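Box 3.1 A note on notation
Throughout this textbook, protein chains are presented in two layers. The first layer is the amino acid sequence; the second is a token string describing backbone geometry. Keep the layers aligned when reading.
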Amino acid sequence: MSSIIYQGLFFLFVLLILALPLGWYIKQIMQNNIPKGVRFLQPVEKLFYKIIGPVSQKEMTAKRYIFSVLSLSLFSLILLIGLLMTQEWLPGGNTVKNLSFPLALNTAVSFVTNTNWQAYAGETTLSNFSQMFGLTVQNFVSAGVGLAVLIALLRGLTQVKNKRLGNFWQDLTRGLVYILLPLSIVLAILLISQGTIQTFQSGLAYQGLEGKDLWLYLGPVASQVAIKQLGTNGGGFFGANSAYPFENPTILANFLENIAILLIPAALIFTLGFWVKEWKQGRTILIVATTFVLLAFIGVTVSEYYGPNFIQVLGSANIEGKEVRFGVGWSSLWAVSTTAASNGSVNAMLDSFTPLGGAIPLFLMQLGEIIFGGIGSGLYGMLAFLLLAVFIAGLLVGRTPEYLGKKIEAFDIKMASLVILTPLMLTLFGAMALISHSEVFTWLTNEGPHGFSELLYGATSLANNNGSSFGGLLADTPFINYLGSFLMLLSRYLPIVAILFLAENMGNKKKAALSPGTLSTVSPTFVTMLIIVILVIGALSFLPALALGPIAEYFTVK
């Protein structure tokens, strides 16, 4: 047990060591201070601008930035739906069938919104062409959109009397060309060295141990796995996701993929400190995020080792549903990482975790996926909580609510509240809709509290743009496909709209000089306040639902 905790601490140490220089690099790139080592990519950047046209050269207000984000997303959505519904007739599609409209819609929405919820098994349902030119492309684009929105917010927080937020197309292009693409190439090469498949061959015939003719599915796996982790996407090439040996073959590959899940979200916290030229502001968020991840990891690990008595039939720990090569430690760490970030990939069956071991990843998602979170979306969600904490603390102590020298006013809190409450309300609405459906019991493999946990986890995953699956829920039904599409779209784009209006409003303000009445946002007291605000909002919103699922199961399991 203690050795596993040391593994987790070593993981966090490596993560932060790598995130620090990457955070500085991202800041340089997004401020158009291109380091010499990557200037050879500038012709690629300029080519993108030439293709996009004059619109790529104009400064944008919030409305124009929002229009650009929504236009690209709508175009991507239509294009991907069309590809998935015609893949049988496209190159390399002779072994698969066209997707139905409900499944194509759900899949397209899932990848465009950076959710990557999968109601299918990739190797049997999609062609290599669809995987490469449909899903992998959207893995890059959706991650780039989240990064661009965050950069617009950082500009708004730091500039003075300026409503312009930069140019979306430039932010997107720089994020793709200089950050996501190079990192993905490096990670893909490392994964290939460990045995992750990378080939254009669709499969290989072989004879099984019983003499039967079998088929081994192959494809361009490493390239998709790299961006699925780095882009906090999570959609697996294979149905078993990162538990599948050809997608995640070794302990080292597992470590690299796990680091990749949190690397850019962690680096963006350092980017915040560098951007505002006050490292202590980034330190506040880093302490909060690291504290949550560490406590969650310890909680899941302890639960999987010393959970209810039924696990004793399996030995000293609950190894059901876990890969033996990863064991309890790496499986627990992955479950926490993938739900702290909006990643959604899995290397173990969460449905087989102990009640509290499954409840902790569930609760991490219900906090809004702000603990590191997705690329861009995690940090701008955390900043919304931070502004709310500043406002509440200011009211409590009678001090002026300010952040980075700018007064926090009613409009700012309205926008921050919209960012915080949208996934929260959609989660509860989604769970209600699933539970109320007349065919709900035909979708579940379990009843009672565990069956409720499966439904609650599914709604939470969809409404928080995570995409991970608890298991035990038949996801490919028209109702769930349509409901999931609705939840994923609103949960992605309503907060984006609110963040961009917030950024514009903050950017148009003047900075006030620090005074004795200014509330410090870097003190231990404020760090504690921020943690309390996050926990109180999460607990008040979801404790009743958790009590009907994993908590009830914990007290009923013998």
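The longest strand covers residues 203-207. Residues 310-314 have pLDDT under 50 and may be disordered.
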